[in-house]
Amino acid sequence: MKATITSIELKGPVKFFALSYSAMKIIKQLRATNCRDFKKRGFWTWHYTMTLWNNEQELKDFAGSGAHLEAMKKSKKIAREIRTITIETDHLPDWTEAKRLLKADTRLKF
User: Fold this and answer.
1) Cβ neighbours of residue 77 under 8 Å, at least 6 residues apart?
2) Which CATH number fits the domain 2-104, given the four candidates 3.10.50.30, 3.10.200.10, 3.30.70.100, 3.40.50.10140?
3) Model-level pTM?
C-alpha cells in the first residue's frame, strides 16, 4: 500500500479560511474513494494530512482530479511551503514519525 504525507505552511493565519473551505470539498471527494485511512491535524499556520491507498494508481487518480486538483492549482495563493512524500507501508505512521519523514526528504519543495 501507499501512504502520502503532506505538510502545508500557510502564508499567514488568515489563509486558514481558504484552506478550510478547500479541505471540506477535498474530504467529501476523499470519502467517495477507496482510501484506506486518513488523518489530519493542524494549528495556526501549519497543517498536515496523511492518506493510505491500496495502490499508487488510486492515489494518483485522487490527487489529479476534482476538489483536490482545484486546491492544488490555487495552493500558491495560500501556502508558503508544501511538502509531500509517498511511502510504501501497511499503515499510517504516528505524527512524530510522519513529521520526521517529511523533514528528512531533501527534494526541492514548493
Assistant:
1) 18
2) 3.30.70.100
3) 0.91
